[in-house]
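Query structure, 329 tokens:
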């Protein structure tokens, strides 16, 4: 067996095996949403015919599916699988070296180490996810996942093609002694769990579950562009990290999904890379190294002081881009 095949066997099996179930559930959700929409339309027509229009409050409609949007998400998901294979093949070499020659000990692969690893991987996911929202160069890669104005199981497959930051936040794991291939398996199961959080068909779950786990309700908040929902609920499997570190926000109303500056394209290449182009444009206009560093490492929407002062002198435009100061994920 080739080295590449061996790497694939170790680090990608759980996710690959889950793909057929992803598609089956995606289709089932789409059909269920269509049937629900038809049922509600029929009920509304019956209320009107019966002369009791307005007797029942109108429900907030679900975003459902769009053929063009879903097609784009599936294409981006396919590209992400290829990027993930390349990325993980390269980082596995680095992680094996760290685990073999630098780690002070090596944790055996046992039932308790798997539990510990799942918790550790989810914590690193939280840290990387928060970085990806609060640091512009990280957001440039991650914003593609948030670019859809729909929220469904198809949106879960709208993944980034630039997973470089994950290696940075995973580095402590082999250093702590976790066997490298197990890190990728744990991460695959983490992603599988998160697939199910991308849906409007599930409401609130029982309170103990909502308190500990990341649920569809919590993740709907995370994908919202509403001001009160921005930069909240970064957890992957567990929501306890958000509760511990002050980034938790319960779902108060139906969110408005997507970016604070909506995209107007279904071109996956533009969706994946347009923010990198924006960074390059801003760097060309920068007048100092502090401005260059700000454009790369400050939160999304950051501007140098001279531009903020200029906007303050023109009241008609001073709030035009304020909502973009912190992008939604």
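Result returned for the query:
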């Amino acid at each position: 067996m080739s080295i590449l095949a061996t790497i694939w066997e170790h680090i990608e099996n759980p996710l690959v095996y889950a793909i057929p179930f992803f598609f089956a559930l995606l289709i089932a959700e789409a059909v269920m949403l269509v049937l629900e929409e038809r049922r509600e339309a029929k009920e509304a027509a019956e209320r009107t015919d019966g002369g009791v229009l307005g007797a029942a409050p109108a429900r907030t409609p679900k975003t459902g599916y769009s053929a063009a949007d879903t097609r784009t998400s599936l294409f981006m998901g396919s590209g992400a699988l290829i990027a993930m294979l390349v990325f993980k093949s390269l980082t596995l070499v680095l992680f094996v070296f760290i685990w073999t020659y630098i780690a002070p000990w090596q944790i055996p692969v046992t039932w308790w180490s798997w539990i510990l690893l799942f918790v550790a991987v989810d914590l690193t996911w939280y840290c990387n996810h928060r970085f990806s929202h609060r640091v512009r160069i990280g957001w440039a890669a991650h914003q593609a996942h948030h670019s859809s104005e729909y929220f469904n199981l198809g949106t879960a497959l709208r993944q980034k093609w630039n997973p470089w930051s994950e290696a940075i936040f995973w580095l402590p794991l082999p250093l702590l002694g976790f066997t490298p291939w197990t890190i990728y398996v744990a991460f695959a199961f983490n992603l599988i769990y998160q697939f199910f959080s991308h849906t409007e068909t599930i409401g609130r779950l029982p309170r103990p579950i909502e308190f500990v786990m990341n649920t569809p309700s919590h993740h709907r908040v995370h994908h919202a562009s509403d001001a009160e929902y921005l930069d909240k609920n970064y957890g992957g499997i567990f929501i306890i990290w958000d509760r511990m570190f002050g980034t938790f926000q319960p779902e108060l109303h139906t969110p408005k999904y997507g970016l604070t500056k909506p995209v107007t394209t279904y071109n996956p290449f533009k969706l994946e890379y347009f923010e990198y182009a924006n960074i390059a444009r801003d760097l060309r206009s920068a007048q100092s190294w502090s401005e260059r560093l700000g454009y790369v490492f400050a939160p999304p929407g950051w501007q140098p002081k001279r531009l903020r002062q200029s906007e303050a002198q023109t009241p008609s435009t001073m709030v035009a881009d304020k909502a973009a100061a912190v992008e939604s994920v």
